[in-house]
Design a protein that fits this description.
The complex is a heterotrimer. By secondary structure, chain A is α/β, with parallel strands linked by helices. Chain A is 33% helix and 30% strand. Chain A has 2 domains: 203 residues, 3-Layer(aba) Sandwich (Rossmann fold), CATH 3.40.50; 83 residues, Alpha-Beta Plaits (2-Layer Sandwich), CATH 3.30.70. Chain B is mainly α. Chain B is 68% helix and 0% strand. Chain C is mainly alpha-helical. Classes of the chains: A alpha/beta, B mainly alpha, C mainly alpha. Chains A and B meet through helix 1, helix 2 and helix 3 of A and helix 1 and helix 6 of B.
Chain lengths: 306, 368, 133
């Protein structure tokens, strides 16, 4: 399986401050990779690196088999970037912007563009600056879809969108991935969106990836057990290497296990547990635990989870 | 199979990518129209003068000492051809402003990002501006020259065709070199400062000569050199524009035409300068790192030059204010040095304060 | 909608899809011969990753719950006794044991539990529109 994006040893500093330090990243072709990180963690910088817009201070960036150099204009014929929350193409009307895109992208699909513009009800004669946030994002997606990229970079695409538009946008994105095998990188702090759409996950913290892999594998890694043990609390339980956290309130304890839960569950029963049940452990909590093991304190990890 | 109506933006063999052409003309259409009007303006005034002369009544002719329209125009046109100022403040600033204004959009919030995110090569962005802008410059002057030639023909002065054309060539190449410089700096240094940088570059020789005169020529009052004139007027800094006409011939805005050989040499110099500036300008624009493109200047140390430039001017003003022209020589130099240094820090403070308030960096997204 | 997926749940999404489909078939909401949406359609409808849906469909096909007919679509397969039925029944027994333990914790006796099961089965039949036997 070839990688759509391959970064190795990438470092980038802005005005003296290091934003990325030693990033190792591999995004398989035709996958949907969720890129998670707090605001200011460096997600946009990573995406701009993948777009060839920004040059890394050190390390190598290979996108779609091409090693990135200085200009990378031809790479952007196959890599498209979409972001919400920003001023867009000032001075253009919708039809003018579409015309420009049709000239700039060699794979432009006019039929698709027309169909999507109609489906999303975008008024061709309106100035791009007059569009609502949702319409701007929709327009970007239309242009992205019609340009038939091999790699689509989505930077918080659903920020500021109402539920209806958000669903439309995500459906378009999914359709692109499903129908054409477009590789997607979705940078978001909406963990739920990532959990729906991604098959791979990469968590960015402190300028590098603290966690990277298949989404299901990451989710399956951690488990939480609620156990009720009458009598004295068996401290040997806490000594088990896979038990990372224990929270106790009287007879009821919640154990967080990094690994398969059955051995620990069995251990609990042997110590006389009358109830052993697994409870939900959401992804954000998984991150905090993993990062906690890496040495980051809980206080540092308060990012917006929606 | 998708039906593609697009053409590759970097197809080998295409002179200028259609995307770049469309974009440039769309995004800067106002600049091109206004620029054309401004650049052709002085020529229109000139042609109107010729028109008036062509229809001068006999009374006026006698008063001016010319018997016929032919003779009047012969004199006017000869004067034109021999070089009454091609470059005054207005034309210098017009060409410079035009070149700089062409980068206005590509430095604005959103404009820049959207330009570069698409598969458009930076060199094509620059090339489009150079080609279209250059064409406007050339056409404005060509129109003026054409009109002049018509006036010459109408007044039976076709003998002056050669000198008029030469003068036209001089004007074209000179303006182009100014435009090219402005474009190069607009793409490298930053919108706000390019125009001033032009003036700085164009005014430096005059400034230096004035300064040296001030130091070593023994006069007892504020000398009527350009520098003296600048200093004596109330708006000290603004009137530095008066320094511009007194430029060294080795600046592209130079005047002072002597023999045809001189003119031809200058034309050659202008052409070389234009080519050099376009080449360098394109290079700077291509090399500038993306995250810096929203800044006023790319290379932070250039800010220091800017402060120096401002305090060069303000220093003069302050010095004259303090000394009232009663001091000269080494004492003057000392006071000026103090004013210059103080000015440098003052301008640095003022500009950084201003920079923090204004969002220079909004061209590049605040999100990391 | 017969398909419910909670992406926040620690259970893998593809697993949830599989269980949803099996549950719907068991309840009779989907019957033999009913056409299922294609991978692409389902992914779009539910805004789910298409690879995830594809994986679920693959397993469902392997378990002979659904079958793909080339050129026509994906359909619910005829109910067939799964080959590893014995193991599956054993799993069911284990789950029943767990239920007994849970009931104890809730101060319910085994008889209370049996009654609870009967009530639930009755309700289930009502949902399916079957007469009470």
């Amino acid at each position: 399986m070839t990688a759509a994006v391959e970064m190795s040893g990438v470092r980038k500093a802005f005005r003296g401050k290091e934003a990325l330090r030693g990033v190792e990243w591999s995004v398989p072709e035709a996958s949907v990779c969720g890129l998670i990180g707090a605001n200011g963690a460096g997600k946009t910088t990573l995406l701009r690196l993948a777009l060839g817009l920004v040059r890394a201070d050190a390390g190598s960036v290979v996108v779609l088999g091409e090693r990135l150099g200085l200009e990378n204009a031809s790479l952007r014929e196959r890599v498209h970037y979409v972001a919400s929350d920003r001023a867009m193409a000032p001075g253009y009307r919708v039809d003018e912007w579409v015309r420009y895109a049709s000239l700039a992208y060699p794979r432009w699909d006019t039929v698709r563009a027309g169909r999507l513009l109609g489906a999303l009800e975008l008024d061709l004669r309106r100035g791009v600056g007059e569009l609502s946030a949702g319409q701007r994002t929709s327009l970007q997606i239309v242009v992205a879809a019609a340009s038939r990229p091999d790699l689509l970079l989505l930077d918080e695409p659903t920020n500021g969108l109402d539920v209806v538009v958000k669903t439309q946008v995500l459906q378009l994105v999914i359709d692109m991935a499903a129908a054409e095998g477009t590789t997607m990188i979705l940078a978001s702090h909406h963990i739920e969106d990532v959990e729906r759409l991604a098959d791979r996950l990469a968590v960015l913290y402190d300028g590098h990836f603290v966690l990277q892999g298949d989404l299901d594998a990451i989710k399956a890694r951690m488990h939480r057990l609620q156990v009720v043990i009458p009598g004295d609390w068996p401290v040997e339980l806490e000594k088990d290497p896979t038990v990372v956290r224990v929270e106790r309130q009287g007879k009821v304890a919640v154990l967080t296990v990094d690994g398969p839960p059955e051995p620990v569950a069995e251990l609990c029963r042997r110590h006389g547990a009358v109830l052993v049940e697994s409870i939900d452990l959401d992804l954000a909590e998984v991150f905090r635990i993993v990062l906690g093991k890496e040495g980051y304190s809980r206080a540092q990890l308060q990012w917006n989870v929606e | 199979m998708p039906s593609s109506s697009g053409t590759s933006s970097s197809r080998p063999g295409s002179f200028l990518a259609p995307a770049a052409r469309y974009r440039e003309l769309h995004v800067n259409r106002t600049v091109y129209i206004l620029g054309a009007l401004v650049l052709v303006g002085p020529w229109v005034a000139w042609l109107m003068q010729l028109q008036a002369e062509l229809h001068a009544p006999a009374v006026l002719l006698d008063a001016m000492g010319h018997g016929t329209v032919h003779s009047l125009l012969a004199s006017t046109l000869a004067g034109f051809a021999s070089g009454s100022p091609t470059f005054n403040t207005f034309t210098v600033l017009a060409a410079a402003a035009f070149g700089v204004a062409l980068f206005g959009y590509d430095r604005s919030a959103g404009g820049l990002l959207y330009t570069l995110e698409t598969p458009l090569r930076r060199r094509d962005v620059f090339a489009a501006k150079a080609i279209f802008g250059g064409t406007v410059v050339v056409l404005a002057i060509a129109l003026g020259i054409a009109g002049t030639l018509v006036a010459a023909a109408l007044s039976g002065n076709l003998a002056l065709t050669g000198p008029i054309l030469l003068r036209g060539l001089f004007a074209v190449t000179g303006q182009l070199s100014l435009f090219a410089t402005a474009l190069a700096l607009g793409g490298a240094v930053g919108t706000v400062f390019s125009g001033l940088a032009i003036a700085f570059w164009a005014g430096l020789p005059g400034l230096l000569s004035g300064l040296l005169t001030m130091l070593f020529v023994p006069v007892s009052y504020a000398v009527p050199t350009t520098v003296g004139a600048a200093v004596a007027s109330p708006a000290g800094i603004a009137s530095l524009a008066q320094a511009l006409p007194n430029l060294s011939p080795f600046s592209p805005a130079g005047i002072g035409l002597w023999s045809t050989a001189d003119v031809l040499a200058l034309i050659a110099w202008f052409v070389a300068w234009t080519a050099f500036m376009l080449w360098q300008g394109s290079r700077w624009w291509q090399l500038a790192p993306f995250e810096r493109l929203g800044d006023g200047v790319f290379f932070p140390f250039l800010w220091n030059l800017y402060y120096a430039y401002l305090s060069l001017a303000s220093g003069l003003f302050v010095t004259t204010l303090v000394t009232h022209g009663t001091v000269r020589g080494p004492e003057w130099a000392l006071i000026y040095a103090a004013a210059f240094v103080a000015g440098w820090f003052f301008w640095r403070l003022a500009v950084t304060r201003q920079g923090r308030r204004a969002a220079w960096r909004h061209a590049v997204s605040a999100r990391t | 909608m017969w398909l419910t997926v909670d992406p926040r749940s620690p259970k893998p999404v593809y697993q949830q899809v599989i269980e949803s489909v099996k549950g719907a078939v068991a309840k009779g909401l989907l019957e033999h011969g009913d056409r299922l949406p294609s991978v692409r359609e389902l992914a779009g409808m539910m805004t789910l990753n298409h690879n995830t849906v594809a994986r679920a469909y693959q397993e469902l096909e392997r378990d002979r719950v659904i079958e793909v007919v080339r050129g026509h679509g994906t359909f619910v397969a005829a109910a067939v006794r799964p080959p590893d039925r014995e193991a599956r029944v054993q799993e069911l027994v284990a789950r029943i044991r767990e239920m007994i333990v849970d009931a104890h914790h809730l101060q319910l006796s085994e008889d209370d539990l049996l009654e609870l099961v009967q009530t639930t089965v009755r309700a289930w039949r009502e949902e399916r529109g079957q007469p009470d036997r």
